[in-house]
Fold:
Amino acid sequence: MKEIIDRIIQKIVELLERLAQLIDKMRQAAEILLQWLPVYLSYLTGKIRDAVEAAASAILTFIQWAQEQLKWVGSPGQLSAAATTWLADVGQPSAQQSYLVDKTELEVDDHWKGEAAQRYVEVLPNQSAALSSILDNGAQPVADALNKAGNAIIGYWTAFSVALGAFIGTSVAAVVATSVTFGASLAIILVAAGVAFAAIFTADKLAVNQMDQAGLLIRGAEAKLRGQWPTFVQ
Structure:
């Protein structure tokens, strides 16, 4: 999964760099054309120049923002692997050990008598229940939280990639149409950037919500374990 995401991200980075270069060239070309306008249109020329500069700068700012986000991809694969480890190395061994914490299974002197022996036998059920709860109330919720966090990352970058893909596609089409008018092309690209940003913002909110849910799962697991674990070992 990480390899696939990395390849997609790298391709997006390359396309964004290319698009930034094209926008800069459009700005330079517009400036050259404006220099050919008559002097008596200087007021209008200034207005056009300012509009082109503002639109190009806004688009380049969005591209730079997107490039910055792409530096923090995360690793859902590692989160999934950690979830598996929690179940295999923590939860399941603890559950298996809970069956051994039983009076009939302990390898102790059968002739051990007295108050200490009786007290020890009395706490065995609590020990067994506590060990058993590590899987259901501890390792499993933590694993679920890690998987939820990983899915949140995948969902976010999927939406991010789709949004930027649409933005890049629209922008390239607009660049091809620059022979008609620079202003219209830049306006189209600027609107596409706004649409892409809105989609990414929505995906970000969804991912944050899923991360919050993952945090609740972990805090809930901690509370359950504290309530289940015998007081004498807390």
Remarks:
- The chain has one domain: 2-76+141-233.
- The mean pLDDT is 77.
